[in-house]
Design a protein that fits this description.
15 helices; about 30% helix; alpha/beta; three-stranded antiparallel β-sheet; single chain; binds uridine 5'-triphosphate
Length: about 400
């Protein structure tokens, strides 16, 4: 993109201040800035002025989950269909590892965090070991796709290489990068983090499938004959991936997506719950859950919204292709954004100073016609690491690993 084209794009989006230092820049810096302007989509930045309207929900009603009792009863049936699908190479796994993991407080990718006590046990290693369990059980390799971002791609790929992919076959691992979104002040003006660079952050975990398309990864999926994609978060060190029983249940119920859920441990637990929204599957975030919904009962007198999602979904690949062009709602989140001050010097704010713009995987569920909420035992499958200490932390995950006989 040349200067004039960049100027026009920025002017159209009310972001001309990005060129404030342009004349001072060296030729390669000028080029870097113009190329960043070319890559970035600025259209969302004006949305912050009406941000409350962006994520308004429709009419919420309960959606029942397939519970542990039924899963246990039908285990053989599910296992046989699921294992057959895995063996036939119809199941791929997608690790969402593009997040910044700011709550954990490390600059490195979250997956390289060592949760071991007497030996090294990295988060990525735990996930690979969980997947290897199924590889052994099915006696078949499973394609693993790892989404990174501009901020952690090099560090992530180098780490996997250095650790010899934790015993996974490298030809079954494909890395791809998600898009970045500009970060802005409260008026929607993008910040600069250097004179030749706009402040950006990963654009949320909702763009994973469109990024796979952009990177040509979907061609690989077609070639390999993959029909189901198990998307999962980097931070749950206990989760089962490409779990044959879950795969079988999703296939046999002819669902477009299966969502692993856990029974909430309290009505106000900070976890998104499964529901129907205007008659279609959906997820209400904990901060959107009204008192009324929290205490609502179903026809059996049980809590109506008691199953929370753990960010482990099995999507029918064809269904994703049908919805990929649809625009997911934008989530605008307050954040501390490092930026240049008036004098052109970098500051790292102590308090939030603007917004980041994200799309979320959970909003994809609402675009699909059918969803199977599938209950898993939380103490066996849910040990998320969001924080260093306290709830959903390194400490709580270590306890759960010990409970499950995992040596740390
Ligand atoms: P979180 O919501 O926990 O966000 O991500 P985060 O950025 O990792 O952590 P904090 O909020 O800064 O502490 C849930 C999952 O989605 C992935 C994360 O890597 C994690 O697996 N994710 C999140 C992405 O892949 N891309 C994103 O842009 C955001």
């Amino acid at each position: 993109m040349n200067y004039q084209q960049a100027y026009d794009k920025l002017e159209k989006n009310g972001q001309l201040h990005v060129l404030k230092y342009y004349e001072e820049l060296k030729p390669e810096e000028k080029e870097a800035l113009l190329s960043q302007v070319e890559r970035l989509d600025f259209s969302m930045t004006s949305s912050c002025k009406h941000k409350e309207e962006l994520t308004q929900k429709g009419k919420i009603t309960p959606l029942s989950a397939m519970q542990l009792g039924e899963i246990k009863r039908r285990k053989d049936e599910f296992m046989s269909v699921g294992l057959e699908a895995v063996r036939a190479g119809k199941v791929g796994a997608v690790l969402l590892a593009g997040g910044m993991g700011t709550r954990l407080g490390s600059d490195a990718p979250k997956g390289v965090y060592n949760i071991g006590l007497t030996k090294e046990v990295f988060i990525f290693q735990r996930l690979i070991e969980n997947l290897l369990d199924v590889v052994r059980q099915a006696d078949a390799w499973i394609h693993l796709f790892v989404m990174t971002s501009d901020k952690n791609h090099e560090a992530t790929t180098a780490f996997f290489k250095e650790k010899n992919y934790f015993g996974y076959r490298p030809e079954y691992i494909t890395f791809f990068m998600q898009e970045m979104a500009p970060a802005t002040d409260y008026e929607g003006k993008v910040y600069l983090e250097a004179k030749d660079r706009i402040s950006t952050s990963p654009n949320g975990n909702g763009g994973w499938f469109s990024s796979m398309m952009k990177w040509g990864v979907v061609d690989k999926i077609h070639e390999a004959g993959i029909e189901w994609l198990n998307v999962f978060a980097v931070d749950n060190v206990l989760q089962r991936i490409a779990d044959p029983c879950f795969v079988g249940a999703t296939i046999l119920t002819d669902s477009d997506v299966g969502a692993k859920v856990v029974r909430k441990n309290a009505p106000d637990e900070r976890i998104g719950v499964m529901c129907l929204e205007d008659g279609r599957p959906s997820i209400v975030e904990y901060y959107e859950l009204t008192e009324e919904l929290m205490n609502a009962k179903d026809e059996n007198g049980d809590p109506a919204y008691s199953f929370g999602v753990i960010l482990n979904y099995l999507f029918r690949e064809k269904a994703l292709e049908e919805i990929v062009a649809k625009k997911l709602p934008l989530h605008i989140v307050e954040k501390k954004i490092p930026c240049l001050d008036e004098k052109g010097e970098l500051i790292k704010p102590e308090e939030p100073n603007g917004y980041k713009y994200e799309q979320l995987v959970l909003d994809m569920i609402h675009e699909l016609d059918s969803c199977l909420p599938y209950e898993v035992e939380r103490n066996y499958e849910f040990a998320p690491i969001k924080n260093r200490t306290g709830i959903d932390s390194v400490e709580s995950a270590r306890e759960l690993c010990k409970e499950n006989g995992i040596e740390l």
